[in-house]
Every structure is written in C-alpha cells, then in structure tokens.
Amino acid sequence: MTSLLDRVIADVTFRTGRPAVQLEASGRHLHLARADADTLFGAGVALTPAHDLSQPGQFTCAERVRVVGPKGEFPALTIIGPERVQTQVELSATDARQLGVTPPVRLSGDLAGTPGVTLIGPRGRVDLAEGAMVAERHIHMHPSFGARHGLTDRQVVSVRVWGPRGMTFNNVVIRISPDFATYMHIDYDEANACGFTPGLLGTIIV
Length: 206
Ligand SMILES: [Zn+2]
Fold this sequence. Notes:
Structural class: alpha/beta
Strand content: 35-45%
Largest sheet: 9 strands, mixed
Number of helices: 5
Bound molecules: zinc ion
C-alpha cells in the first residue's frame, strides 16, 4: 500500500527530476550497550519501549539516563533501543558545549577516540571512556530506493531543503540496508538552521 508520504515524495521527485527524501530531526539521545544498561538499571533489565521510531525496530524507551560532563548535565536523556554493541551518546554541537565536551562528527558506531561522559541511572553509574559524538548527517535508505535512483551505500551527496530558511546540506552520507526506511536524519542545530518542521522534504543532489 502506498502512503500519502510516498505519493508526495514521488510527486516532488517527478517535478524536480531529483529524488526527494523526508527529513527527521534527532534530538540528543543515547544507545546503551547491554552491560551498561545492566549497571544503570539493574542486571537483566528489559528497557521499556515507549514510542516506535521511523526506522523499523527502533524505539524510544520509558527509562531515562542522567548524563554528566565537565561543565553541565542533562538530567533525563532519551534512550533509543534496542541495545547496541557499544554505548553511544549523540549530541548536537550546542548540547556538547553545554556538557563541556568536544566530540567529533562521526557516523554511528565509529567511536574510537571520542570523548567519554558519565551516565547515572537508578541502580548505578558508568564512566564512559569514549562514546560521545555529533552524528554525521545521513540518509537511511532502503535498497529499493537506492536502486531506483542509482544511489549506493556510503555515497556522499548534497540535499537541498526548501522553505524560508532553505539551504543545501553537503556531506550527507547514504547508508543502505534492508532494515532501513528511507529518511534523512539531522540534529537539532541543523534543524534550526534550516527552519525544520515535521514533514520537511529535501531533494538529493549528486
Ligand atoms: Zn539516523
């Protein structure tokens, strides 16, 4: 079944001659490794799904984590499940400044050499040696979308967004997987810069 969004995207793609993609703005959040979830919430804890996200199988959790840096803290950071191999704290540059850390821009999972922060839960505390990063802007893409438009995994493209603060994002990394629904992810700094509102579309410029 074709959703209204799919029809709008197809229409914009037809009218502009370039593939259109919907943007989503990701607020600061973290992904927890199993061992760290155990330390923070108790051994064998099952995190409680609260809201499903657009990526299949991904959800925000009812549980929250206090995140502490050298200069500040966030008392209740959102957890996105399910668990990951390594704990990853995704911040905007503004968030990072508030915490007092200077994380690099990275793709998800590429955490070597990133700064650590402290996580505090109801049952324990984790001092991360690494894991804080600013997410490189990216497009989650289903293989069918990539095949239709000649786009490949790890390809770097630009995305033009419209509206009063319209702009072009360069250095957008395409990530293709059958587990993905096709959406572009930006953080809140980028969302504010481009006048993001839910449903914003961009066109992919190769
Ligand atoms: Zn993403």
